[in-house]
Design brief:
By secondary structure, this protein is α+β, with helices and mostly antiparallel strands. The chain is built from 14 helices and 15 strands. The protein has one domain: 3-Layer(aba) Sandwich (Beta-lactamase), CATH 3.40.710. It has helices at 28-32, 77-83, 117-131, 141-144, 158-162, 180-188, 200-204, 222-236, 240-249, 278-289, 302-310, 314-319, 323-326, 378-394; strands at 42-45, 66-68, 74-76, 86-93, 96-102, 112-113, 258-261, 274-276, 293-294, 297-298, 331-333, 336-338, 346-350, 354-359, 364-370. The strands form four sheets. The chain has a seven-stranded antiparallel beta sheet, with helices on both faces. Strands 1-7-8-6 form a four-stranded antiparallel beta sheet. Strands 2-3 form a two-stranded antiparallel sheet.
Amino acid sequence: MSQHEMMQGFPPAESGQVTLANWRLPPFNRWAFQNLRQIVPTAEVRRSVGPAPPVTRAAQPIDRIGFRAADGRDWTVGDLLAESGTDGLMVLRDGVCVVERYDHGLRPDTPHIIFSVSKSVTGTLAGIIAGDGRLDPDAPVTRYIPEAAGSAYGDCTVRHVLDMTVSTDFVEDYLAPSGDFARYRVATGWNPVAGEAADLRSFLTTLSRGAGPHGAMFHYVSPNSDLLGWILERATGTPYPMLLSEELWQPMGAVDDAYITVDRLGAPRTAGGLCVSLRDLARVGELMRRRGALGGRQLVPESWVDDILTNGDAAAWRRGRPAGSILPDGRYRSQWYSVGDDHGAFCAIGIHGQFIFVDPTTKVVIAKLSSQPLPLDEAMEGVQLAALGAIARGLA
């Protein structure tokens, strides 16, 4: 069944109904990732009200760019795009758009969920708030969220949260039908409620402490990034969707409204619920490539971006899973991944194939939106990262 047959009719045929129970599963996910506000409650992130920034274009072919991935197979970029459920791809070189493609019904102004690329946007917003002194990354979490005392966050710092080095027993298992991750999905409003209704912020304060010390190991835990969003709200006294709009989305000249999923009490899913257009996703990457400056304004502190590029605990990264196997020479800092190559590339990664890839050496930024069937496919993720790097180098 194609996405064009989904949710057609009044009411839609049962076989084409996209629901809270199936929206992340194929074939329903292709429609849902572009129409999530019809499934899950959301809050608006307002775009800039001024005229859209001009976009310079100079189309360049990329389909025949070849590369060899870690699987030992010789690929072309065209093969990869066809096999990875690509819904949209935009490539900028020194700010000039050289590739802009849409497939599977995606339009230029359609917000598409970016899953955990949302974390990197939240980390960027944290840099803005830290830059003017409203957030102290070295402060204990309980300065902002006293309710976290007694949980895994009770004795850690905001920096541990930013860098995914909180010691907790939480296991990030996207396919688990029960357990902490399944409870988490219900609390976010992403899964049907079975039994007593939950909410995201209450769930966060139930995470249990791990055996090891904070800071010792990279441990990818999506609730950390939801907690970060809550911290930003407390630090500023502003709801996250409004904060993101006022501090980042509007100042960077976003041309489209975005939106973010919220739970039953309105708490935003800052770890994975942001839905944005392809061109605004690329604009975030270009802002980071320019070390936080766009249009003559320093939106994100240059020192924050430089810290992402140069810091992050490589030893803690190597102790962590699963990302350490995909980027063995990488690091993680303030919700962004450093690739660990000789170009200083860094990226944001979301499940089902969402990416921002930035190569500072070649001045290339790549934004990719996808609807891959599996949430996490390590082999395909490795191939995609190799492809993105090949595009950047192939355009140099």
